[in-house]
Amino acid sequence: MRVLFLCVFYLASSQVFADDKQAFKQWLSALKQEAISDGISKNTVNLTFKKAKLIPRVIALDRAQPEFLSTYLAYLDKRVNTAVVEKGRMLQQEHEVILDAVQARYGVPKQILVSFWGMETHFGRSQGDFDLPSALMTLAYEGRRADFFRQELMHLMHIIDAHHHAATDLRGSWAGAMGQMQFMPSTFLNHGVDADLDGRINIWTSLPDAFSSAANYLAKSGWHADEPVAIQVKLPKNFNYALAQLNVRKSVAAWSQLGVEVPSFWLDMDNTAILLPQGWKGPAMMVFGNFDVIMQWNRSVNYALAVSNFADQLAGEVPLVVETDVETDALSFNQIWALQAKLNELGFACGKPDGFPGLKTQEAIRLYQATQQLPQDGYASPSLYHRLLEN
After folding, report:
1. pLDDT per residue over 364-383, tens digit each?
2. Extended beta strands in the chain, E state
3. What is the spatial distance between Cα 312 and Cα 315, in angstroms, rounded to a whole number?
4. How much is the pTM?
5. Which residue segments constitute the domains of the chain, with CATH numbers given?
6. How many other β-carbons are positioned within 10 Å of the β-carbon of residue 116?
7. CA-to-CA distance for 196 and 206, rounded, in angstroms?
8. Whole-angstrom Cα distance, residue 302 to residue 77?
């Protein structure tokens, strides 16, 4: 279904772009003047736009919806499997001197940096194959967040103007991210580091620059060297699952008083939350301040937990303990949409249905679960869907 959508949208977008050449030409002319007024040299502006073109597939990807939303454990198995962890360990050892130096300077563990590296680009192998000026131009002209991408395009031209990368053959993701760690241009300008002191910030082929830039970003975002990201904990049988959400914060000692089993050496930590990424039958995770730092990098809870788990395994810790009765199936985008519509119909407000189980949807589910004497984990599970829509 998603492939069909992309094909149909691609054809429709191609026709729209073909019919809109004059409007685009005027827009591009104004953008060039804006760039020059922003202090970017005419030479850089001309080189940036010399081969740039609108890419219908970028808009198709920007507007596409996933057919199925992955469960946390399925996501983890795909992104942090045995082969990936082994590759990470090998590369961590191979680049140990660089990683140790970066860790000593910024306080960010080398395992975290290698984890990000693997998650973002498969250790540098998949940095994106879209012409970056063209992708950002397309999103700035036709995308859902045109103003944001217009600014990112300006930032990219400043990067080119400062000779960090040539305008030709500058490639990245369809959404404008680039390099070993997939920095947006604004992130590059704010946090990029010339660690190898060659006169330019090279996050594409220089690992000292790439690792240092990532560590600098995390350090400036509030990374604490003396605390973990997330740990698996055991909850008591009488635990109030409504407390398991990111905005409910307690000290580790307070959680311990509620019966949560936590290693004693973390008892002096504060500002922690408990998450149930796959419902009350799945693993229970206690997250710390560094989890919030990772969430600034990527707002996905599954992503942040996967980075943590990957880093833990690189450090030699055991994988998660998972009970056998956890619900393993995922709801589709359409099923989530229908679930949201049903909750709204029953008076459990979760906002306009969008197919994604965000915070409002989770709270609506908890309220519904409370009326049914169910564990209030807020999880959009298949069993909840069947209870609501198929009874």
Report:
1. 999 999 999 999 999 999 99
2. 130-131, 171-172, 230-233, 273-275, 284-287
3. 5
4. 0.93
5. 2-65+128-178 (1.10.8.350), 230-314 (no CATH), 333-389 (no CATH)
6. 26
7. 8
8. 11
